[in-house]
Structure formats: structure tokens, C-alpha cells
Amino acid sequence: MAAFGRKNGLTMATHLMKTLAGSSRNLCGIVTSEVTTSHTAKWMQDTSKKSPMELINEVPPIKVEGRIVACEGDSDPALGHPIEFICLDKEEPAVCKYCGLRYVQCHHH
């Protein structure tokens, strides 16, 4: 029974995608590459503002005492990201894959 439902679901999804691709209507929620490209080009024209990566790279690496840090992006859960556990065994700063914050282990000798 599950295989029969999966096959029908795949057939329906394929039919829906063919219908949407052939439609000339403006579909809310579907962004074409042309819109994305023009938006990015417009955003990149203003050279007086720093890019998000430039801004995050200005934040110095955060020193922690343990070997593992849990990054949530922000103390407010609504502004953060999924929790990311980062191992700090290497000498260079470890980078969070979600927000780009860098962490380094503070060695006490």
C-alpha cells in the first residue's frame, strides 16, 4: 500500500511541476533567477555599505575555555540559528557554519 501511495504521489508531483512550468501566471513564492540576479546586482551597487561577511569578519574571535562550544547565533532564540557544536582542538579559529562567528580555545599555561 505504501509503494502504491508513493508512486501516485510522485506522479502527481511530476504533473504539478509540468503544469507550473508551462504556466504564464505569476506564481507567489517562486522566484526566477532573473529576479534574483537583478536584486543581487542592485544590492552590490552600493559600495558604501559593507557586505554581511565583511561585518561578521570584523568581530574578533570569541575566546572560550572548553574544547567544545555551542553556538546559537544570538541569546534570543528568535534571532539565532539551530545549535551548532564546534570543536576547538585546532590552533586556528573555528567558524560557525550558520552565522560565521569565530571561536578559539583560550589556553591557560
Annotate the secondary structure layout.
Blueprint: H1 2-22, H2 33-45, H3 52-57, E1 62-64, E2 68-71, E3 84-87, E4 94-95, E5 102-105
Parallel strand pairs: 1-5
Antiparallel strand pairs: 2-3, 4-5
Domain Zinc finger CHCC-type: 66-103
InterPro entries: Znf_CHCC (IPR019401)
Pfam families: zf-CHCC
Structure explained in plain terms:
This protein is α+β, with helices and mostly antiparallel strands and 109 residues long. The protein has 3 helices and 5 strands; from the N terminus they run αααβββββ. It has helices at 2-22, 33-45, 52-57; strands at residues 62-64, 68-71, 84-87, 94-95, 102-105. The strands form 2 sheets. It has a 3-stranded mixed beta sheet, with no helix packed on it. Strands 2-3 form a two-stranded antiparallel sheet. β4 and β5 (102-105) form a beta hairpin. The protein is flat and about 60 Å long. Pfam families: zf-CHCC.
Which strand order spans the largest sheet, edge to edge or round the barrel?
1-5-4
Please summarize the sheet with the most strands: 3 strands, mixed
Shape verdict: flat
Multimeric state: single chain
> What percentage of amino acids are in beta strands?
15-25%
In helices, the fraction of residues equals: 25-40%
Number of helices: 3
Order of helices and strands: HHHEEEEE
> Termini, distance in Å?
64 Å
Which spans have pLDDT < 50 for at least 5 consecutive residues? none
Mean pLDDT: 77
Structural class: alpha+beta
Number of strands: 5
Using only C-alpha atoms, the radius of gyration works out to: 23 Å
